[in-house]
Amino acid sequence: RSGLNYLFYHNTPKYHLVDPAPSNIIDCYIITRGYYTAMRRWLSDPSASAPVVPTPLDLRTSYGHLLDNKMISDTVVLHPGKFKLVFGSKSDPTLQGTLKVIRSANRKMTDNQIKTTVVDVVREFFKLEYWETGQSFFFSELSSAIHNALPTEISSVVLVPNMKQNQFGDLYQILAREDEILHADFSVDNVEIVTGYTTTNLRLNG
Does residue 94 sit in helix, strand or coil? Predict the structure, then answer.
């Protein structure tokens, strides 16, 4: 073939020097066990310190074998992954929200039991092994998981943002950057039992 113009592009989010000689450039986003453990401790213990994201140097020191085992034609770039918290008080204010639940008329569980079950479902939904960096959140999937766990106890569940400037539906899809994994900072404080939905409790009027 002739008459084809070819231009090599590689967009790197960091200020790396890119060698165009290798044919494969592999970006690895790593969540270390220490960072994950520190994050869980911080979410469960108010007195714990906020976790520190590992540096690229830390990753090269701990995971240097990934670089040693690469092919000659490959370039492996190790990026520190980080958590993007949602819903709870330790997340960004624009991502804080409350699950508002309407109980079923045929329920057998108490309000506290329903709240506890919802918390368990949300935490299970956001387990690290179920997510990848850059993966987006869709509330329809979480809503289905909650209804499956409480099929006869609740009739409806919605997610309402806490921030006054936000509107109903703003949290129904949450995007993550290529180096972020979504994780829920969630407790019974983020669940509210309501008798019905109104323009006020859904923030339909701003």
Answer: helix
- Cross-strand partners of 100: 158, 192
Check residue 13 and give its pLDDT. Answer: 59
Question: What one-letter code names the amino acid at 112?
Answer: N
Question: Which one-letter DSSP state was computed for residue 23?
Answer: S
Position 201 confidence tier, pLDDT thresholds 50, 70, 90: confident
Confidence of residue 15 (pLDDT cuts 50, 70, 90): low
Distance CA 99, CA 139 (A): 11
* pLDDT of res. 203: 78
Q: For 3, which DSSP code?
A: S
* N residues, the chain: 206
* The one-letter amino acid at 53: V
Q: Which residue has the tokens 């998981």?
A: 145
**C-beta of residue 87 within 8 angstroms of C-beta of residue 191:** no
Give pTM, 2 decimals. 0.81
Exposed/middle/buried for residue 118 (C-beta within 10 Å: 0-12, 13-18, 19+): buried
Residues of the chain with pLDDT > 90: what percent? 63
DSSP code string of 114-136: HHHHHHHHHHHHT-GGG--TTPP
Q: In angstroms, rounded to a whole number, what is the distance separating the alpha carbons of residues 189 and 201? A: 16
